[in-house]
Amino acid sequence: xxxxxxxxxHVSLPGDTETQRSRKVLGFLFLVAxxxxxxxxxxxxxxxxxxxxxxxxxxxxxxxxGLAALVWFMPRSYNVVIGATALGLxxxxxxxxxxxxxxxxxxxxxxxxxxxxxxxxxxxxxRLGLVALVAFLGTLGIVSWLELSRxxxxxxxxxxxxxxxxxxxxxxxxxxxxxxxxxxLRQIERYRVQANNLLLNVLPGSIATQLKRSPGTIADDYDxxxxxxxxxxxxxxxxxxxxxxEVVNFLNEVFSSFDVLAERHGLEKIKTIGDAYxxxxxxxxxxxxxxxxxxxxxxxxxxxLEGVTGLDxxxxxxxxGVNTGPVVAGVxxxxxxxxxxxxxxxNVASRMExxxxxxxxxxxxxxxxxxxGRYAFxxxxxxxxxxxxxxxxxxxxxxxxxxx
Length: 404
What we know:
Elements: H1 3-11, H2 18-48, H3 54-73, H4 78-99, H5 115-124, H6 126-148, H7 159-202, H8 205-213, E1 218-232, H9 235-238, H10 244-265, E2 268-273, E3 276-281, H11 290-304, E4 318-332, E5 338-342, H12 344-354, E6 360-363, H13 365-371, E7 377-379, E8 383-385, E9 389-391, E10 394-396, H14 398-401
Parallel strand pairs: 4-6
Antiparallel strand pairs: 1-3, 1-4, 2-3, 4-5, 6-10, 7-10, 8-9
């Protein structure tokens, strides 16, 4: 855990949004940075110019450090602390401005008031930022009116001191704005990576890139893709007496292991439907060995569940169906994207699973022809397949289902 994560953990509340957490971290860093950036020059002014306002400025930096500590130990005080800091900064800078003799002195301490509207927008949100902007502009108006309606109270500041003070003012404000910008850029990149990773968990990489570049309908034809469906046998009965959380955790554990295997074989997970798992090969990037990859994945699926028991203590059993053929793939939905595939090949693959045998990999003749010579199959007697009539299907021979 890095320093920013530790700060976020300390100054945030459990119900805070990501934006609120980022604002609080930035607010805490702002208080610490201003205390340091203002405190060091204040000490210098105090030691080099005893008649200056060094003691007051140093005391203000200590107050800011105390406010940072308050946010650290009492996160609920954040809004009050930032609001009080904004008001206090306006009042102190205006008083400091007139202490040095106003505009006529050549010392432009008022540059620090820029931090009030900028800080309010970043640390408290746009609504309070607009309030701070009005206060900032009103303060400048009042200061200008007072400057034009009064006599010079102090003589102009000596030129070397004026140069040093103005350099410090500009440097201080510049450093704070730069640090805030760097932190915001870091957060933007962090959220961009999170959003991109989330999108990649929903869509294939090439499809996600295409969607980001040109939002709209995405649909592609594929001449040959291999599709697999797998279903946990008697899952409803197995999970009938289990708590819903146990059911979800069980499915998550099983399907997560399948996800690892799918990634290892370079397959595209399409979706899960209840206790069924659907995966395809040959899309979105075509590949010549899509059928081999799917069958190798199916063998590994069955092997990974050997000795694994379900929610009721009974062994987990699968039915697996595979088919090869043309499909249409695309993204549907406006708010919740899903990458899906359609076509007769998909329907037949589903029928291969639903009409299959326990712990067997049932395939169509198209799959068998693609794999002849590499795997051995046993033909089944023709079985009725919905929408297709009687079909001859094939079972991968048992020795292959154990990965031998």
